[in-house]
Design goal:
The chain has 4 helices and no strands. By secondary structure, it is mostly helical. The chain has helices at 6-28, 33-55, 63-98, 106-131. It has one domain (6-131). Helix 1 (6-28) packs antiparallel against helix 4 (106-131).
Length: 135
């Protein structure tokens, strides 16, 4: 079986999977039956992308590739953590002032955060692989 490139495996396992998570979160915001079906389909495709990432064999990565992957994941995690903190802060302040939640549908937002985190991670990995550690 032919091995795929690290770049291709990265796009399948992080960027494509992240896009499907993001779409599922957007579809979750609607009460429409059509969007609920679309959400389920998007989550199935996200699962398929993760399974492919696990079972597809890629070219052997060097130590720099592994370091770039970890650096990209760390940056994505920090970015999403900042976003979650900002959303929580806005929600807490609005609860104090107006006694109601501004940000509802946490399930949808969680799916979108996961999707964005995966996309950021995948795009950063591609940038680090292309530009090196100076990126």
């Amino acid at each position: 079986m032919k091995k795929i490139s690290l770049k291709t495996k990265n796009y399948i396992g992080t960027v494509a999977c992240g896009l499907f998570w993001l779409l599922a979160g957007i579809f979750e915001l609607s009460d429409s039956r059509v969007f609920k079906i679309a959400e389920g389909i998007a989550l199935i495709f996200a699962w398929i992308m993760l399974i492919l990432r696990i079972f597809l064999q890629a070219e052997d990565g060097d130590e720099m590739s592994r370091a770039h992957f970890l650096k990209a994941k760390a940056m994505a995690f920090d970015s999403i953590l900042s976003g979650v903190l900002l959303f929580t802060l806005v929600n807490s302040v609005t609860q104090l002032i107006w006694q109601k939640d501004v940000i509802s549908d946490w399930h949808a937002w969680l799916m979108m955060f996961i999707g964005v985190m995966m996309i950021i991670s995948g795009m950063n990995f591609a940038r680090y692989e292309r530009d090196g550690d100076d990126a």
